[in-house]
User: Fold this.
Amino acid sequence: MKRLHTRVWLVGAAIVAATACGSDPAPGTTAGQGAGVSDDASSDATAGGSDATGTDSAAAIPRAKVYLHDPLTDQGQTTEITLVAPTDPSAGLAGPYADVKNCLNEQGGEEIVRFNQKVGAFCKEVHTAKAGADGTWLHIDPPADASDPNDAFAEVQMYHHVHQAHGYFKGQFGLTDLDYPLDALVNVNLYIEPDIAVLVGSPPGWQGYPNAAFVPKEGFAAFKLPPRDQGAIIFGQYGQTDLSYDASVIYHEYTHAMIGTTRLASMLPDVYGLDHMPGAMNEGFADYFAATMTNHPVIGAYGISFAGPHMVRDLSVTRTCPDDLTGEIHADGRVLSSALWRIRAAVGPDRADAVILRALQAFTKSTTMAAAAQLMIAEAEAEDAVMAGTFAKILKEHGVDTCQRIKEWKAWKVEESPDKVAYSMMGKQEFGGNAAFPDGVPGHLQFYVVLPSGTKAVTLRWQAEAQGFFSQPATAIAVKPADPPTVNFVDTSITARAVLPMSPDPGDIAWQSLTLAGKCIGGADGKLFVLPLNQGQNTARVTRMEVTIHKSMPSGPNLRSCE
Ligand SMILES: [Zn+2]
Assistant:
């Protein structure tokens, strides 16, 4: 489970997505204005706002049962609502702004082919939910067995909440980018052929998908599938968890679809390394809008918690740059989302959301955190100076305005860190081999060590692991006294005092280390800056770090003096 989970999270990142959460009906519908748990069933009947009301002259009112938030928050109770009228109730849940299909654990789905061999299959996409004889959908309940990978209730839940999200963005703010039936898949599972499963060391047959994602039309390549005519939001069934049951996860993925593929979708080198913050901001906005739609700051109370309580994201917990950065986009998105949540409290939800959405329109694939802050402050300024001041003050307090991705190198263990996320460095393979980064692929973060007066040397140690079977980590560091090493955006060369491969530690081969002295540390007191590098083909992850300051000159095979 661990390995599969880790792998899928990476997929999620690569296709601009992955789990989030929030929950609740949208503000703008009367039910959405409570403290996240207002279960006023009947008032939810106007789902989707003015443009999306299911006025259906002939047929019965399309009543249905859904979780307003998620099974945990709603304590297992569904609530009766009115769906936006589907185009043809006898054909399933395809309507003006959502086309929801069940992805069944049955043969007949798209084949996954590698090296001219069928290695597996995607689940089979079918409309299974159908209106009853009375024209309603009330006969569709949550399944008795929560692990049911084919339940029709997931379709109803998805259809309702996608229209809620559409109604929020269009009804409140006039956004029309997603004015078409967005494809949405529920109960996503993958089939692995038995002989292939043996080869890759996974169980054969149907595999749960422990994630949710917005997949752009060309993003199905992550599943080794061909491009589609349009992007989709997809939701897995994994063990006892059906990710489509969590409205906050739906709103999160819907926001990714709204942001689209032309905004916040790059991973480019900047002076500090490989800048993952556009992707982190994409996650941060997805969390923020899920939270504002539900009027509740917790994302993933049900839909993420299966992966561990530390994965659930609470926007009311302040995160700042650089101290809380991890290099992982969901965790680091919390710097922005927690700042926006405070801004929302200070200026009011409607004003905050309007300013943030207008600023978002001007974002590009590679908008930086600092540029994002300026765009939001400028939009606020266009309305009133006091609000602009609030935006500026809170964004600054969270470090959004200047976000330099440089943290102190100190004793650290991944399992004891709040997010339990290793410092990860992408491999050369992900950039097409050796050519792109001759010195190694830079990490997303840099580190600094404070050198007290009289320091003769400093030992830096870490434990690193490389992804892939039998793969050894090939890590290195670029070091520079006084100010940070820099990465050249154009030729990806690195300016530093030295680039030094980390070596097996003489005291413990589970560790890699270097002891730096002489010109490596500059010979004076001050700061030493360190940029981690991955010289291997596969992703490397640092799971433990240590630092030792030496006041007398040490010796040993890993001593470097940069002479
Ligand atoms: Zn996401």
